[in-house]
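Worked problem 6 (solution included).
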Amino acid sequence: MTSLVTGNTSSVDLEEDTSSIILETAKSIIILIFILLGIVLNLLLVVAVCRETKLHRPSFFFLLNLSSAELVRSGLCLPFYFIALVSSTSISEDNQFCKSASFFYTLLAYETIFTLLSLSLARYSIIAHQNFHKKKLTRDPPKV
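Solution. The predicted structure is:
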């Protein structure tokens, strides 16, 4: 900032600007790493579950569902937040892209919650009703 009387820039203001720029850059790099890791690792998990026939079981399909939701979130929602952080302009709430990204982020969060609930109920039913599952399951479960 420039002083009105002297016209000089104080060193405190320069230090604050420098630390602010460093902090914003660090945030941007961290979000970019999350985006890349989220896309690559979830894509590897989807490919592994789809290719390997031993993984064609209900619990792995729940995992596939969670992984695909995280893949969409990493590919669709997180880049929007990265762009919002990097861009110098403010994002208005009337922006349709902002509303869409928020909708998908919320939708995927609820989908994750319901998938985890379904997985926990499936695990509970297997543990609570072991005799039923021992009679119904064979050595080689049917391939889905």
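Discussion: The CA atoms of residues 91 and 127 lie 50 Å apart.
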